[in-house]
Amino acid sequence: xxxxxxxxxxxxxxxxxxxxxxxxxxxxxxxxxxxxxxxxxxxxxxxxxxxxxxxxxxxxxxxxxxxxxxxxxxxxxxxxxxxxxxxxxxxxxxxxxxxxxxxxxxxxxxxxxxxxxxxxxxxxxxxxxxxxxxxxxxxxxxxxxxxxxxxxxxxxxxxxxxxxxxxxx
Length: 169
Known about the structure:
Blueprint: E1 15-16, E2 19-32, E3 42-50, E4 57-58, E5 61-63, H1 70-82, E6 84-98, E7 111-124, E8 136-140, H2 141-147, H3 151-168
């Protein structure tokens, strides 16, 4: 069991212009291709997690709270949900979506705006706050596109992460 504890509740949740503000990341790493020589390019893999509320895979994300920066919120969510730590490498963009599970007195429509970042994973924790409800899986970008639960996360992967990664390569 993890000594770390996930934040809960909405007392410090940020809202702006009718949207609940979310922070998240696309965790990634590099591995050598099995069929390559030492001089060839490395394969990029992304980390996805199971959802606590249904089928399909997700990227770590959650509410951005008033006592933290958006970057701190993204890193916190990665640790709480996926048990990973790393370096935020770049903002991938802003993605709007409607949540069926996060409607509340401040956000009756369930509208959310997510700030998504690329996170270069440096370590995977053996225990983390949500390990009893989530599993993590490394996969290629192509596999992630096929397994992603939400269309907005697919957009963040393809239009955000892939574009960002190609530009920095």
